[in-house]
Amino acid sequence: MNTVAIELKLDLSKSNNKLNEITKLRQSESNSTTLYATILDHNKEFELSECNAELHLKKPNGEVYVQAAEIKNNEITCTLNNEVTAISGNAEAYFQVFNKDKSVVNTTATFYLQVLPGLIPVKKKDSNEPQPIDLQIIN
Q1: Is-contact 9 18, C-beta < 8 A?
Q2: What is the pTM of this model?
Q3: Tens place of pLDDT for every residue, the chain, 139 residues?
Q4: Residues 17, 81, 34, 70: is their CA dihedral positive or negative?
Q5: Are residues 85 and 30 in contact, defined by beta-carbon separation less than 8 angstroms?
Q6: Measured between alpha carbons, how far is 108 from 32 in angstroms, rounded to an integer?
Q7: CB-CB contact of 38 with 54 (8 Å)
Q8: Helix, strand or coil for residue 108?
């Protein structure tokens, strides 16, 4: 399966809050979308070589989720797993950037994810029976 690459530019100053497009995902997709975030500080590229990063996400149900991210070629890379896409709706996210000793350096501007509802087949009594047109929305 191919992954979808989403390029983001996020500023630590939050003053250059250029609107990134809302990233759309499908509910129950796992490891199918990778975020590549270039981090800026007042519109200048921020040096990440001595840093670590985490994705902080507020799910559509209000639950907070944190996922470790990688730093490659001075860019934050984060492949979204099924925890991120478990619930449909709008989610808010940002990256937290910190030094190797775990002291927080800063957080990026907020970006948004929209998890579109997924569909599951209606349970059939007979497996040879054709799938009905109506599908149930995952809860």
Answers
A1: yes
A2: 0.79
A3: 457 788 888 888 876 555 566 788 888 777 788 999 999 888 899 999 889 999 999 999 999 999 999 999 999 999 998 888 889 999 999 999 998 887 777 999 899 999 999 876 666 677 777 666 555 555 5
A4: positive
A5: yes
A6: 23
A7: no
A8: coil
